[in-house]
Amino acid sequence: MKKIHVLMYAMIALLMFGLVGTPAFADDHSGDNAMVRVLHASPDAPEVDVYVNGDAAVEGAAFKDITDYLELPAGDHDVAIFPAGEGGEGDPVLEETVTVEGGMHYTVAATNTLDSLTLEAFADDNSVTEGMTKVRVGHMSPGAPAVDVGLVGGDSLFEGAEFFAVTDYMELDPASYDLEIRAAGTEDAVLDLSGTQLDADMVYSVYAVGADAESLEVVVVADQAGDMPSEMPQTGMGGASQSGNGLLPIALTVLAGGLVAALFLRRRTAEQ
Amino acid sequence: MQHSFSAAALRNSKKLLFFLSILLLSACSTTPDESSPASPENAAETTGINEEESTLEETALETEVESTENSTEPEAAAQTETEAETTPVTQAEPIEPVLGGSAGGIIPVTLSIPAIDVEGPVLPVGLEEDGAMEVPETGDDIGWFERGVKPGAQGNAVLAGHVDDLTGPAIFFDLEKLEAGDEITVTSADGESLTFVVTHKEAYPYQDAPIDEVFGATSSRRLNLITCTGEFDRDAGTHRERLVVFTELKQE
């Protein structure tokens, strides 16, 4: 008896997967998957290959490189970093488990110096109010002090960011901004970012990288802001299609109604 | 309108009945178009979006105030001051942003599909009030969903065209004839063109299409073409199904 039950369950499971499961695997359902990319932010680390769950995901990423997004199922993933060109053989420089949620975008930064290399994963939100721009700042320079980022000679937009931190996004009007990175709480500029162009419907991440304040530089990553409709478009007007219910009766009714109304109105006008 | 009707009614109650029936008739015949966006489901979604937008607008306003304050300061003076003070500052070329995968691509202005003899202009379109993707007003134009990615970038870029207009076939009438392997080409205003290859096509009930699969994130560089298919449902004022042709950037 038990065996039969198991068989039945197996068959039910098979049926369900046959109907629901297979199409989901044939086409990637991005709602269930996470989008993950890697930023090489370790100033003294060599070029690296990144392996995810044992497969080469990125090859030859150098300092300041950011990869395209990689689609991964929600859940835990084994991310291993190897020196480039060794085919993932030998000991990885670093191996960590990264947990991702479906429907989210992530940047995983390989950060700090080579001997204390770590992976930091943080979420990207590539959406913005239509016509606006959005920016955030990441402090990825292990030797640099806490910083403010603000307008040259003006107010700070982001304050007190320390290694390792990625700020929230700030929505701004699209324009060219004269930004600078300052030692936190001071007017001492560490890095001049004059003429930073922030375009509409784009999302910017300004990552400060480098070993310390002297070798500080920035990687500005620009992403296209995306939005999804809630409904499919109305891509037809019916002029060359079979119709579910007749247009003619409705058209005739409207026409007849209109005619009667017109006649009636005319009569009424005549009466007055 | 109704006031004049009831005035007439006061004079003659039979006329009122007559008018009411005409009113009813005309109301019935106009509902199909208006009723689809007004379903309770959609209404709820629309409110959600509005709320979200209004909070975002508030933040936007705050930010705007900040930035105007900043820009009203005597910038030139401030700048020379900073330069004088801070000699060790690493200067100074404007930083070129690194484009994330989804940030590339071209803005399409024409589309050509030799396999079904389609060649037409592409216009940017956004969202309707009810959150649906907008479509071009005429049957000859193709709409590119500009709130998504550009063709050639990582993600799902989307074009939509009518299958028919009020009088006959429109630009995407033959879209259903496309087969895997057929090529489509989009060209930008400065003449750059990209070719995509049809991978598969799928028809979905119009209110139950996998929006996320057609418009959402993907690591591939896709361009999806949408048109209507199936019977035209007069009550709903739309075709019963949507045809999506999925294509992927041709590997050079």
Short key terms for the protein model shown above:
heterodimer, A: 272 residues, alpha+beta, Immunoglobulin-like, 2 domains, five-stranded mixed beta sheet, four-stranded mixed beta sheet, 2 helices, 18% helix, 42% strand, B: 252 residues, Sortase, Chain: A, eight-stranded mixed β-barrel, 9 strands, disordered N terminus
Short description:
Chain A is built from 2 helices and 17 strands.
Number of domains of chain B: 2
Whole-number total of structural domains of chain A:
2
Radius of gyration of chain A: 29 Å
Mean pLDDT of chain A: 84
CATH architecture of the largest domain in chain A: Sandwich
How helical, in percent, are the residues of chain A? 10-25%
Strand order of the largest sheet of chain B: 2-3-4-5-8-9-7-6
Number of helices of chain A: 2
Contiguous low-pLDDT stretches of chain A (5 residues minimum) are 13-30
User: Could you say which structural class the secondary elements and strand pairing of chain A correspond to?
Assistant: alpha+beta
Distance between the termini of chain B: 64 Å
Question: What is the number of strand segments of chain A?
Answer: 17
CATH homologous superfamily classification of the largest domain in chain B: Sortase
Runs of chain B in which pLDDT lies below 50 for 5 or more consecutive residues are 1-12, 27-87
Fourth-level CATH superfamily of the largest domain in chain A: Carboxypeptidase-like, regulatory domain
Count every beta strand of chain B, where a strand is a DSSP E run of 2 or more residues: 9
Strand count, sense and barrel status of the largest sheet of chain B are:
8 strands, mixed, barrel
CA radius of gyration of chain B: 26 Å
CATH architecture of the largest domain in chain B: Beta Barrel
Approximate helicity band of chain B:
25-40%
Keywords (chain A): Membrane, Signal, Transmembrane, Transmembrane helix
Protein name (chain A): Peptidase
